[in-house]
Structures are given as structure tokens and as C-alpha cells.
């Protein structure tokens, strides 16, 4: 996955807050990467409403 690509949130690995649960099924654009504590690299995703958060790679699916 590369910066600028569109991705869809297809699952959530952990318990998260309501604003993030709301993103399930939504499409956003990869903005960058984030080092996580112990699980590797997270992917920063920005949505249409300018909300930005990070997800694990297995929580996202590339969109055409």
C-alpha cells in the first residue's frame, strides 16, 4: 500500500471508539505511515470529512 492510494476499511482488529467504528465500510486515502508499539506499521488514512486515523494493513483493502 502506497501513499495516495484509495483504501476501504473492511474490518477492525481491536475495540475502538465510536468515531472509528463509523469508518467501517468507508473509503479514504492513504496519507502516510505510523510506527505502532509492537505490531509493526500502521497506515494513516484520511476520509472525505478530513478525519484522519490509522489502521493495520489487514484492516484495509485497496480500491480501484
From TrEMBL:
Source organism superkingdom: Bacteria
Q: Which InterPro entries match?
A: Tsr0524-like
Pfam families reported in the protein's UniProt record: Tsr0524-like (PF11061)
- Name of the protein described by the UniProt record: Cytochrome B6
Q: Which organism is it from?
A: Brasilonema sennae CENA114
